[in-house]
Amino acid sequence: MLSEAILRYIAEVFIGDQEDYYQYKSGNVLVDFFNNEFGFNDKYDSGFPSRWYYTSEKIKALIESDDINDFLTKILSTKFIQIENRVTEVEAVELSEQIVNDFNRELKLEDHKINKLDSKYILVEINSDLKYIGEGGFAVVYKQISTGIIIKKLKEEFLTNRGIRSRFKREFKITKSLSNVEGVIDIYDFNNDEFSYTMEEADITLYDYIVNNDIDNEEKVDIINKILNIIKDAFVKRKMYHPTNRIVYHLV
């Protein structure tokens, strides 16, 4: 369960008391929202509690009933934000991203995070949502269970090293610039708060594919030609061309 402080923060943002992401919501509007959207049977009368307390209690109840993801998906959806704020679709998408970032900044303090999977938003515990994949000299790689996305994160001992941080971010920018090259996996977003970036999951490393399969010479030549064509298309030479760093993605 999230702390009362986190629940209050999310509640106050949603009711329009913090951050200016949502319009101000009166008590009767909140009662109608939770009754209509989530099947509560509350009444707005003279004994009604403070708006933030009522909302935080509803969020707590939704967590306990495993409906919290439906709540997050509703209030973070482009359509909901667009209608509520009378903004364009583009502006609504930007607002949604800002809200998620602000929520996650607070949630991270309690080892939680909101992840987006397609059009749904999912509240997860960070540690239980990460599966260790491997590591190199500077970073550790995880698979995010809730989304299937791969996360490459700078090791904790290097977070204060400006030179290594700069090198890590440059790696992200270079790799992301190659995402439109056929045969290169897609790179998504960089997280400045924890120095990590996300990417799509590939099938297997080139090393494992070669070791675990009986490959004839013709296929070996075909793989080599495809890799050389990718390098040619990218116009980039990097120091990371090692068999365990190469992955098989639409390559074989």
UniProtKB/TrEMBL annotation:
GO terms for molecular function: ATP binding; protein kinase activity. Residues 127-252 form the Protein kinase domain. It comes from the Bacteria. InterPro entries: Kinase-like_dom_sf (IPR011009), Prot_kinase_dom (IPR000719). SUPFAM superfamilies: Protein kinase-like (PK-like). This is Protein kinase domain-containing protein. It comes from Halanaerobium congolense.
